Amino acid sequence: MSNKLNQSMSLADPNGISTKQKVATGLGVLGLFILVLAFLNIQLPNKAITLTVALGLISVGIVLYTHALYSGKSKGIKNDGIWFGSISSRGVLGWITGVILTSFYIVLYFYPQFLGLGKDGAANTGLISVFDPLSQLLSGRNASQWFVYGTLYTIAILAFGYKFIKKYRHNRYEQIRTGSVMFFQLAFAFLIPEFMYRMNSGLPYYDLKSVWPLNYYIFDEWSVKGFLSNGNIGLALIVFGIISIFVITPILTYKYGKRWYCSWVCGCGGLAETAGDSFRQLSSKKMSAWKLERWLIHTVLVFSVIMTTAMVYTYLGYDSNNFWLTKGLFIGLVIAFLTLVFVIIMYFKRNELGKDAKYGAIGYFVVIAALLAMHFTGSTDEVFLIKAGSLRSAYGFYIGSIFSGVIGTGFYPILGNRSWCRFGCPMAAILGFQQRMFSKFRITTNGGQCISCGNCSTHCEMGIDVRAYAQKGENIVRSSCVGCGVCSAVCPRGVLKLENGSMEGRINPTEILLGNDVNLMDLVNKK
Amino acid sequence: MKHIVIIGNGISGVTAARHIRKLSDNQITIVSAETDYFFSRTALMYVYMGHMTFEHTQPYEKWFWEKNRIDLKKGYVKHIETKSKTLHFAEGDSLQYDKLIIATGSKPNKFGWPGQDLDGVMGMYHKQDLENLEKYAPNNKVCKRAVIVGGGLIGIELAEMLHSRHIPVTFLVRETSFWNGVLPEGESAMINREILRHGIDLRLGVNLKEIKADANGKVKSVVIPETGEEIECNVVGLTAGVSPNVDFIKESGIEIGRGVKVNPFLETNVPNVYAIGDCAEQHEGIDQRRPIEAVWYTGRMMGETVAQTICGNRIQYKPGHWFNSAKFMDIEYQTYGWVFAKPRDNEGHFHWKHEDDTKCITVCYDTTNNKFLGINTFGIRMRHEVFDRWLTEGRDVDHVMNHLPEANFDPEFFKHFEKDILFAYNKQLETV
Description:
The structure holds two protein chains of two kinds. By secondary structure, chain A is mainly α. Among the domains of chain A are: 2-193, no CATH class; 440-525, Alpha-Beta Plaits. Helices cover 60% and strands 3% of the residues of chain A. Chain A contains 23 helices and four strands. In chain A, the strands form two sheets. A two-stranded antiparallel ribbon of chain A has the order 1-2. A two-stranded antiparallel sheet of chain A has the order 3-4. In chain A, β1 and β2 (386-387) form a beta hairpin. In chain A, α12 crosses α19 (426-437). Chain B is α/β, with parallel strands linked by helices. Chain B has three domains: 3-107 and 243-310, FAD/NAD(P)-binding domain; 121-237, 3-Layer(bba) Sandwich (FAD/NAD(P)-binding domain), CATH 3.50.50.60; 323-431, Enolase-like, domain 1 (2-Layer Sandwich). Chain B contains eleven helices and 25 strands. In chain B, a hairpin with a 4-residue loop joins β4 and β5 (86-89). In chain B, α1 (11-23) runs parallel beside α7 (296-310). The radius of gyration of chain B is 23 Å and the shape is globular. The mean pLDDT of chain B is 96. Chains A and B meet through α7, α20, α22, β4 and α23 of A and α1, α7, β21 and α8 of B. Chain B: Its cofactor is FAD. Chain B: This is FAD/NAD(P)-binding oxidoreductase. Chain B: Residues 3-288 form the FAD/NAD(P)-binding domain. Chain B: Pfam families: Pyr_redox_2. Chain B: Keywords: FAD, Flavoprotein, Oxidoreductase.
C-alpha cells in the first residue's frame, strides 16, 4: 500500500509533470526511501525522528503534488489524460506498482519477520522497530506488523483523501464523504483501539465500525473470551457488535443504502476511495464480470456464515446450566433467523426475484443442511468432516488475507480499486442484499437527458454499467452500488442523482424515454 | 418476415433497430461505413481528453448484437435503387431490403473557404476526425496552435479538447457573442467569460478569409478578413454547424431538400423508405421545432417512433416538450421548453446570475397571461420530469418560481440558490 504513494497520482498532464510535481514526488520518494533503509535493517539515528521525517516527507510530498496538480485550475472534472498515464491505465508503472504492492502484502501477512517483527518477546528490528516510538506513545507497547500497516494505511487515507477533496472541489458530496472516511479511519480504526488497549490491556483489538462478517474474528473463542473476561465494558462491546449487525446496519441501509457504510465509514472502502481513486476506471464493466461477481460474493457470504456458526458452535456447551446458550439452542436460533429472512423475502419480494430467487434458495439450503449435518453427525466440532478450526483458518487465509489484502489491494492497479468490495466482501453482500430489497436509496436518472457517453460506467469503481440504465431512463438500483457519487459527478449532462426516496416506483424500467410523444410513452411503457 | 435495413449506426438507427427487435421478428441489418459498432458520438471528445478509451463509448458489448439478432455490416452505400429495393456498396457488393431506414446523420459544414481541404483541416464529428486530430494534434509540440472556426456546441467542445492537451487555441466566432443565436445575452456573455477564463483566445465577430498552406500542403496559418491578421497554426477545426449527410441519395428518386424529406410519419416519398435523425427534414417544423433537428435526443425519439410504424402501428412523430443539454467547459447547461435568444412578441425573460459567474438561469414566460414557457439553466441541474409536468399542466411563472426547489437535481449537500432566485424574481416584479 505505502509503495504506490507518489506514482499513483494520476498523471493528468500528458506532457509530463511540472517542476513542482517533480519536487513533490522527490520528497515523497525520499520518505519511502528512509522506510526502505529501515526495512533493510540499516541502523538509523533516533527512531522517533527517523519515523517523523519519513512519514512527514511522504505526506508533504502528496500534499504538494496535489497542489501542483489542481491549484490554479478551475473547479470541475479533473480526469484529463488518465487513460494516457502509465500508472492509471495498466501501463508499465501500473504493473510495477501492482507487483510491489502484492509483495508487500505477502510479506505483511505471511512473513512479518522480514519486516523486523521480534519473535517471542524479542525486540523488533528493521522497519517495525522504527514504529516502536509511535506505538509506545499511543498504547504503551511496541509496534507489531499490524501497527505498521495501520499507520501507513491511515496516512494513505489522510493524504490521498486530501488529494481527493482537492480533485472534487466542485462537489460537496464527495468532499464531505471523504472527510467522513478520513475521520473514521483515524479515530475508529487507528486511535481508539490503541487508547482502549492503554485503558484496558485485556480487551481484544476492536475497531468499533468494523461489523461482522467483515470483522470475521469477533466471535472467535479467544475474542469472545477476551471481551467477557473484561467486565461490563467487554460485555458492552460484544453486545454492540451484535446490535451493529441486527439493528444499526439494517436501519441505516434502509434509510440511506449501503453507502452509509461502504463509502462513508468502512476502512477498506476508505482506502479504495482515496489511495485507490486513480484506479477506479480499471474495473471491468462486462456482463461476464457481473455474473462472476454475483456468484463469488455470495459464495463468500455463505462460507462466512457457516464458518462463524461452526466456530461459535465448537466452544458452546451442551448443558444449559453452565451457560444459557447451548449448542442446540444456538443452531436452532441460526436456522430460525435464516428461515425468517428467507420467508420474508419470498413473501414480500417474490415479484422482484425471478431467477435469482433460485440461487438464494440454494444458498439458504446449503447453509441449513451444513448446520444440521454439523449438529447431528455427533462429532462436536466438524462440518462435513472438516474441523471448524480448519474452516476458520481456511477462511482467514483465503478470504481474510489473500482475497481482501493481497488481491483486493495489491491488484488495485490491475483490477481497479474495489475488487475486494465487489467480488469478495461478505459485509458488502449483506448490505447489498438489503439495498436491493429494502432500501430507499437509488440513483435517479434525469428523464431523457442521457447521451450514452459512458463517463458514468467508465468511472464506476464497482463495475456497474450505469449507462445501461441511464440511457433507458431507468433508476439504478443495484446491490453492488456503494454510493460513491462519482457517476453523478462525472456526468456531463446532469443525468444522475443519488437519492433516498419512496420505495414505490423505485425500480422503473422504461422503453420510451421522457420527451417523446406522451401517447407513445403510455402505450409502450405501461404494456 | 421482412428484411429491415438501416443505413447508419448512430443513436437514431440503433434505437430504431432495438425497438423493431422488441416489437417483431423481422430480419434487421445495420449498415455503417464509419465504425463496426455503435458508439456515442457525443463522447468522442472524452477519448481525446483521456477520460475514456474509444471502447468505453460503445454502449453495448459485442454479444448484444448477436443475442438480439441485429446484423452489422460495414460498407459505404453508394447508391439506393428503390425500384428493386437494392443497396449498392462502394465495395462492389449489394444488399436487398424490404424496408429501408435512412439514418445517416450529418456532416460538418464547409463554406468554400480557400484551403478548407488542406492537411490539418478537420471537423469534429466522425470517428475519423478524432483519428485525424490525434495525428495532427497529439500534443503542443506537434501542434503549436489550433484555430477553431465556428462558435457552436462542437466548436467549444473542440476548444476544450485541445485545451486539455495544453495546445493554445484561437477560437473564431462569427457572432458578436458565443452562440447568441440560441442563448439570451446574459448567458452568452457568461460563457464568453468562461471560455476566456480557460485561457482560450476567443475572437468574437470575426470570420475566416482563407487557410494558407505550407510547402507540403499542410496548414500554415489562417487569415481573418476583418483585421487582415494572419494567425500561424498547425490545425484548423471547422465547426460551423452540420448539415444532413445525404449526397449519396441524390440519384435514387428519394426526395431531398437539405435533408431527406419526410412527412410526420417519417416516411419519404418512396414507399417503404423512411428517414430519421439528423438527416431527416420535415416539410414543416413540428410545434416550434426546426424542420431539421440535429440533436441526440430527437434522433432517439425518431428511432423509437419509426419502429412502431414499421412494425404495423403507424404513428406520427410527435415529440413532447423541447429539452436539450450541453456542457460549456466546466458549466453544464440544460433547457426545458422554449427560451429564445430574444424574447418574441408577448414574451418576457427573467434572468438571474450568481456572483461567481458560473451559474445562471433564464425563465421565459408569456407576458399576457404569465404562463411559463421555458427555462435555461447553467451550473444548476434541474429535473426534466418536473419541468415536463409543469409545461403540460400549463403552470404560470409564479408557480414555477415558487416551486423551483422541487426541480433541483444537484447532488446532495450542494448549496441551493432557489431563495436567491426567488428574491431576485420578486424584486424584479416590484420594479416593473
